[in-house]
User: Which sequence fits this backbone?
């Protein structure tokens, strides 16, 4: 009998791809939505799988900040993919606007799963919970971000605290079989036009609105690999109790811009590197820019060996992932 997997926040960029890949394997997928009217958006994104797959797709209305709907969401599920979490591109008015849904929502989902006897959970965390205030070269699953690091944002803290809360819950309830996946900047080809904040980074470079690129790196991963890590974890018992870095490598912004410019030579894409003094000056007036100031000119590396070995994922090269996003956006 096909398994039933609950995917929280199924309208999300990552969640839609996970739902697609699970349905393609023959699983039943139940997705949570804050508002059921967005169910048609998900059905449309996944329509290419055919009517048989869509018949195995269902929805429950549930919010991370409310208990309503979670018992129904968990009923009969064999596993949970907890992907739902806020990811803002601009700074929130109050940190708790991001941290509370992430932390309390994670606790609520795990508690509902445990009460329902659903013990297998794969949680979407982030490289944000790994890379801040860390000097390891390369970074590995043993590394945890310092929430007080000068580069740590409210979003960073939300991912650190949410993942810590999940591991604390699993420690308190030994029957829970938890795996966390920690993606970097998620690029690649989205399932639809509702792409969220990750794709907006590439969209900004394509727009040519910035005269130069900061000497700053981000870990980049293709959406297909993010989904592959989540789905493989369900079938790999060796992943239980483990966290996995999910990115190909750190890619500098100027390198992203140069790759996109080569692909789209007709676009006015800035490829030169902004002097660090200029970014430092801008940081005096922009809190978001101030966060990257300590990382200017810093070379970082990561190891995805654990994901390759345990989950069997061969990562798409970071530049290719960025170009896939660029091609997708160019057709808009």
Assistant:
């Amino acid at each position: 009998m096909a398994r039933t997997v609950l995917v929280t926040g199924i309208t999300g960029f990552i969640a839609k791809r996970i739902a697609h890949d699970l349905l393609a394997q023959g699983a039943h997928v139940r997705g949570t939505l804050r508002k059921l009217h967005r169910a048609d958006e998900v059905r449309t994104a996944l329509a290419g799988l055919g009517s048989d797959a869509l018949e195995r797709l269902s929805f429950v209305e549930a919010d991370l900040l409310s208990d309503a709907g979670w018992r129904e969401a968990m009923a009969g599920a064999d596993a949970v993919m907890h992907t739902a979490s806020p990811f803002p591109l601009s700074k929130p008015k109050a940190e708790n606007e991001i941290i509370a849904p992430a932390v309390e929502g994670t606790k609520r989902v795990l508690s509902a799963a445990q009460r329902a006897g659903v013990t297998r959970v794969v949680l979407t965390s982030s490289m944000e919970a790994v890379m801040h205030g860390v000097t390891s070269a390369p970074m590995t699953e043993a590394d945890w971000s310092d929430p007080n690091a000068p580069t740590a944002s409210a979003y960073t803290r939300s991912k650190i605290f949410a993942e810590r809360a999940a591991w604390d819950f699993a420690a308190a309830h030994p029957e829970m079989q938890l795996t966390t996946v920690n993606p970097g900047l998620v690029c690649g080809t989205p399932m639809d036009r509702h792409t969220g904040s990750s794709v907006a980074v590439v969209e900004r470079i394509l727009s040519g609105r910035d005269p130069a690129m900061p000497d700053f790196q981000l870990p980049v991963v293709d959406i297909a690999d993010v989904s592959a890590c989540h789905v493989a974890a369900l079938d790999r018992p060796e992943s239980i109790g483990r966290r996995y870095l999910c990115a190909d490598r750190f890619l500098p912004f100027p390198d992203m811009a140069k790759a996109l410019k080569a692909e789209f030579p007709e676009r006015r894409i800035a490829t030169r590197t902004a002097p660090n003094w200029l970014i430092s000056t801008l940081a005096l007036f922009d809190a978001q820019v101030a966060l990257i100031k300590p990382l200017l000119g810093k070379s970082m590396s990561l190891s995805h060996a654990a994901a390759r070995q345990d989950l069997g994922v061969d990562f798409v090269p970071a530049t290719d992932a960025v170009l896939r996003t660029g091609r997708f956006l160019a057709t808009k």
Summary: The chain has one domain: 4-330. The chain has a mean pLDDT of 93. The radius of gyration is 19 Å.
